[in-house]
């Protein structure tokens, strides 16, 4: 799923071409694409795009009367639609503008059909779904504020980072990268991290987000998950990049049904191998 760096860079690319362009139509290809009934999208017809930005992992296309909040989910994309096929593959919705730019096509591959568009009235963005459920932006959050959030709930830091209600913008890849960068166990308990641990995590968030954003800004389109540079995420069995520093060790994995936690035992858990759901019975 695209995270903060991918969404931020994509918003910048779209803004360069579409800010100032006048919306003429929003056409959903199925009933799941448009998540709201009020205000209707046609309230924005005839209005130019004021801005294109991001909140958490959502794209925001702002018009004077309303803002369209777009979630790409796992495999969604919002791209210029040069072909304008009547039934585009994976097509969820098409936003049509004037004659100077091609329409934007929201696509989602697969069968889940969870990508979609929320129309939110002007001035109500922060108090309306889905944005009202988001925590503060993870990037730029001061260590002291992060420490306060850690102290409010006791949970594994990897889960905290992925929970958009706690902090917004981080997903599975960045959670793995942040924990590795901070040299903190992904299973560390947030309440026990304190200000010292929060400082490490806040600094790691800044580093990992900046690296991801630099990579995405160097591209002409949004990267695929497998293309994104990673030290730990998706590197199961590969040597830890710090092996020259601490001696040889490999990136390990804890597998869950929907995601994988990657970590280096030497860097992050004092050499302890974390229990893997698929293999822990053999470690007991």
UniProtKB/TrEMBL annotation:
InterPro entries: FPG_cat, FPG_N, H2TH_FPG, Ribosomal_uS13-like_H2TH. Pfam families: Fapy_DNA_glyco, H2TH. Keywords: DNA damage, DNA repair, DNA-binding, Glycosidase, Hydrolase, Lyase, Multifunctional enzyme. Residues 2-104 form the Formamidopyrimidine-DNA glycosylase catalytic domain. The keyword DNA-binding applies. Residues 218-248 are annotated as: Disordered. Belongs to the FPG family. This is Putative DNA glycosylase. It comes from Ilumatobacter coccineus (strain NBRC 103263 / KCTC 29153 / YM16-304).
